[in-house]
Target: EmrB/QacA subfamily drug resistance transporter
Amino acid sequence: MTTAPPPGASPDASDRRRWLALAVVMTASFMDLVDVTIVNIAMPSIQKDIGASFSVLQWITEGYALAFAAGLITGGRLGDIYGRRRIFLLGMSGFTLASMLCGIAGDPHLLVAARVLQGGMAALMVPQVLAIVHATFPAHERGKVFGMFGAVVGLGAVSGPILGALLTQWNLFGLEWRPIFLVNLPVGIAGLIMGRRYIGESKAPQALKLDLVGVVLATGGLLMLLYPLTQGRELGWPLWGYLCMLGSVLVFGAFVAYERHKTRKDGSPLVELSLFKVKSFAAGIGVEIAFGIACGIFFLIWTLYMQIGLGWSPLRAGLTGIPFSIAVSAAAGVSVQKLVPRFGRKVLQAGAVSMAAGVMLYIWESGHYGTDIHPWQMALPLVVMGLGMGLIVAPLTETVLAEVPREHSGSASGLINTTQQLGNAVGLGLVSVVFFNQLDQGAMARGHAGEAFGKAFRHGMWWVAAVLGVVLVLMFVLPRKAEAAAGAVADAAGEPVHEEAAAA
Model:
């Protein structure tokens, strides 16, 4: 249900309130998208300014992704139970506060803690966005609204790195990298003021119950896996790290057992395990995780390679990524509208092949040109990679949902979004092994950082190519055609009981 307009309000006033509410929630989505991409470009500046180690740099992005993933489904259910407007405003308040803490942090560990808080608050805020849209707009208007959201997603993907590069390069008021976080303060405060005034309250009539035990078990298992994986290199790979990673398997086993118990008890598990009986969905979750791992590895090592290895400025590195972003946006639009309806999963498979080809071309160019490589020479592999990514990201969710029963489409969609973030967090954790562990300390000591980072970058990119090979193999289990996907997605977005699907 939606809060009614004030008594005596005219239809025009009510309509204006709806569109102002939309502007607020779209701004929140934009903030989250930009904050995911804006940080990578500032990593070298953060390292130099506050003395962050390489493992801390990983946690700055990994901590956000992990907290975001762990809280997504629970955040959606909190909105269903206590009111989407209330939880949205709580999340936005916390996100704005966490952004301020990130901007004033003088210690690298405090920055990591603030980023974890920021990711947790995003997990409260983001799942409410499309749920609020469904409660505010009638069905015949949602197509136009979702089109606007698509534009916001594209704008966020393109503008994040450029905005981060500009804010870092300009060094506003001598604050170095800090404005990339502090810019959220005026935006967040304005959003809170407008949100309180224009967003109507709504709840789900029969919301699922919370599964806090499931959240604790899943998050604990991931931390037991990711912490030693991220810190192991700097600590000399101690025995307790291997034991901790082995113990994570037992925790994940306990998580599965508890989820089965939770299903029998009240039908409100964090993860609907019965979904994995659908082979195409199980394979699709594997695709989501593997694709997230590839992206998590690539985007971090790419930034470090350009800025620390090649010594480029943040602005030069940010501008280098423009061909990639444009290619992703262009291919995404064509894939959904023209290609997937005709060719089905072959489009996604072509995307995986294209991305892998771009990665290998990048490996060759990096080795061939060495430290003398120029941004224009990187354009070709980046465009090939971007086209491949665009063919995957836009239709992937619909394809994975194609054979899922409609009554479970909401839970399935929420799980897809969670596993995307988890894959990204795992990829960021693997950077210690596939990149930092390969840095030639002797070459760096002799002043040849460019050569050392170039070699480590190429090693990491081979890992990316290998993971994309896994993605390609798993895609053969996806449905050949995804005609049913559109209906499943529509149901996921419209089901009041499963509004965690709104995280899509």
Q: What stands out?
A: The two ends are 21 Å apart (CA to CA). Residues 139-170 form the longest helix (32 residues).
